[in-house]
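protien #1 (seq + structre)
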Amino acid sequence: MVSGQVSTYGGGAPVPGAVVTLIDPTGRQLGRSTADSLGRYAVHVPTAGSYVLVGSATGRQPQVATLSVGDFSLEYNLVLTGNGGLAGSVRSGDQPVAGALVVATDPYGEVADSTITGADGGYRFGNLVAGEYVLTVSAEGHRPTALALTVGDTATAQDVFLAPAAVVRGTVRGRNGTPLADARVALLDPAGSVVATRTTGEDGEYSFPDLAGTEYTLVASGYPPVAAPVRVDGTGQDGFDLFLSHEETARQSEPEPGPLD
């Protein structure tokens, strides 16, 4: 005899009416039971041996287990997770974000499902079973975000809001204001690590898009180098020009850089 309880994910609520089927290694059905109001089931086993136990219920993911049954009764509980799915929208302010990548990972870091938002910013995981997940959302021009959530037995709704990614851009100029080509501009984080580098073209322009931090240092070289702190808030810092010269002294543009809301 194999008996036990059929319950749901997490809370362990019973699943009355769940069907439990016992199958032998050749695929032949040997027994069938319907769980009672407490989720209890029991199926008869003809002899000791290896069997397959299948539990199923409407609106839930089935569970399949291979059991080795001896001369005594075996207690085996089945857990049938819900199939409610997850849906929502990705927005930035009051605008939908189309083309955003939405990834759901399980507690072990494995990707359970992924999708791309539509023109309305909407996404949907129709076959995501009940459980704990981390939802990671990224989109060009926005700062990525991640949040932990629980998907229940019924449909779960979760909207995600992305903040715009900041941009620092400007022109490297000589003391007379002429744009300088082939100047190397490096962006450093507060720890002094290089985040990215750019080499200016004929127009002397540089740009660092998709910045997630707030405090950086810009270093321009190719002439006597100059360094300038920059604080990134809101959408970033635009028109942050750097001035280089062949003289020993170098200066940055006025006024002093400050936060841009």
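ok now protien #2
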Amino acid sequence: MAILERSDTGAIAHLTLNAPERLNALSDEMLAALQDQFDALQNDKSIRVVILSGAGKAFCAGHDLKQMTQGRQAEDGGKAYFQDLFDRCARMMLSIQSLPQPVIARVHGIATAAGCQLVATCDLAVAAEGTRFGVNGVNIGLFCSTPMVALSRNIPRKQAFEMLTTGEFISAERAAELGLINRVVPELLLEHETEALAKQLEGKLGAAVKIGKRAFYEQIHMPVDQAYSHTAEVMAQNMMHRDTEEGISAFIEKRPPNWRQ
């Protein structure tokens, strides 16, 4: 049984974290499997949307603490292992946002520590009612510094700091209010609603979504004047695309576009 399962439905790739007995922890093996899939998806033109979910009763409980404890047995107390672990995790997270396809997290149960980081890193997130989110490392003496990077870029500063320093969970409804996730749905409708969102994205011009996703993450950390200059150039390039011309013509002529991509 694979630790990460992939199944494709049309142009939608479904990645399922498949270590339910460990609450889908981001073990060395899980990180490697995720990285392999994201590397493969980078150039997979047949896939337009990715859905990331977890098997069992939780989405993801963060790093594998038992495995991390074993890493301490090295001569340096585990320092080199831990540095490598967090570097590999950061690379995997960055791969999500560098993908040309939008990535949707389908979240249930709990998303804690690096699991919460994973939700914050995905481009979109749909959660079931009753899901809880936390960056709880402080409760065991390990401040969630790397999860903090994604979290603090999703929700307001003071709310992020409160979560990080208290180690308390927030509800799915609160996560939606803060902007950590896009929507909350009844658990029985989680799969259906996530698929509906994916199909909506699937129907857009893939080249435009790819251009737009890259520009979104490029401009978001720029000063406003630089962001406008950069995105003006991006839009000018987008306008040169044959399918964009077709999309505009179809809108004017009140007909469906005949896109090649």
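The first helix runs from residue 28 to 42.
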